[in-house]
UniProtKB/TrEMBL annotation:
Keyword terms, alphabetized: Signal
Stated name of the protein: Murein L,D-transpeptidase catalytic domain family protein
Any one Pfam family match given in the protein's UniProt record, by short name: YkuD_2
InterPro entries in alphabetical order: YkuD_2 (IPR032676)
Species annotation: Luteimonas chenhongjianii
Keyword Signal part of the UniProt annotation: yes
Keyword Ubl conjugation: no
Secretion signal, residue range per the UniProt entry: 1-22
Superkingdom of source: Bacteria
Amino acid sequence: MRSVLCSTLMFLALLMAAPAKAAGPLDRLSQAAPSLDRRVLALALQARTCAARSGDVGERLAVIDYSRPSTEVRMWVFDVAAGRLLHAEHVAHGRGSGENLATAFSDVDGSHKSSLGLFRTAETYVGGNGYSMRMDGLEPGFNGRARERLIVMHGANYVDPAQAKRQGRLGRSFGCPAVRSEVARVVIDSLKDGQLLFAYAADADWRANSPLLNCPHG
C-alpha cells in the first residue's frame, strides 16, 4: 500500500512539474477580451491564417462584431503577436445596413451599407472626416470594392455612446467603420499600413462563400 501511495504521489509531482502547454492565439486573445464572442474571434483568426498564405498580414488585428447592437462596444483591436488587447470601442455601421442592428451588407457603391469580411489596412490621409485610414477588401464579392467605395476608418461626432443610449442607436455612416473622434487617431495609428480588420455578422451567404472562411487546408 505504501509503495502504491508513493508511486501515486511521484506521478502527481511529475504532472505538476511538467511545463504547461503554451496557450495559442485564440486562448490568449480570448482571455484579453472576454466580452468578444470566442467564436467570432476564432473566425477572424481563421481568415487571418488563410490570408497569410498570400502575403504578410502584420501583427495587429481589429475584429468588428456587427451582430451586436451599435449601442455596445463591438470593435476590438489586438496585438496578435503579444497577445494583448489594445482598444475596445464603439463603431458605426452604414445607414443602409439598419438602425441599431446591422442586418444588411453590401459591396455595391452607393448602397451606404457596411461590408463584411477581412480587409487589409492601408495609408492614412486627412480628408473631410479628418484623419482617416483607407482599407482594401480581401474578399471579392463581399468587400473587394472597399477602396473605390471610399470605405475608410475615420472619427465621427455621431459615434457618441452617451447619445446612443438616449436615442437607441449610434449615428450611422455611409458604410465606413467610424469610431469616436477622441480616439480616432490612436486607433488608426495602431492599425494603419498593412494590418488586418475583420468585420463579422451572422450572414449566411458570406459564411458559406467567403474565400477566407472556406480556405482549403494544406
